[in-house]
Amino acid sequence: MLGLVLFNGFREKVRLKAAPLLAPLVCFRVVTRGDYPELVKQNVNYNMTKCREVGMENFF
Questions:
Q1: For the chain, which has fewer Cβ within 10 Å, the N-terminal or C-terminal residue?
Q2: By the 8 A CB rule, do 56 and 26 touch?
Q3: Could you report the per-residue pLDDT of 14-49, keeping only the tens digit for each?
Q4: Cα–Cα distance between 8 and 35 in angstroms, integer?
Q5: Is the entire prediction scored with pTM above 0.70?
Q6: How far, in Å, CA of 57 to CA of 43, rounded?
Q7: Quick check: 53 and 19 in contact, CB under 8 A?
Q8: Would you say 16 and 54 are in contact if contact means Cβ atoms under 8 Å apart?
């Protein structure tokens, strides 16, 4: 139980193992009931920013 509290499972920076230009197209689908549209927009913007930070180019 202590390991669940103290272990940080998130790395600071994601490192890709291959060149981003050689990666296939990645498509993200966001499924929601529309109860919290601002939260959905924030999550989509956050995820797209992370993809750009690691160098992904072929995504939408």
A1: N
A2: yes
A3: 777 777 667 678 888 888 887 888 988 998 899 899
A4: 31
A5: no
A6: 19
A7: no
A8: yes
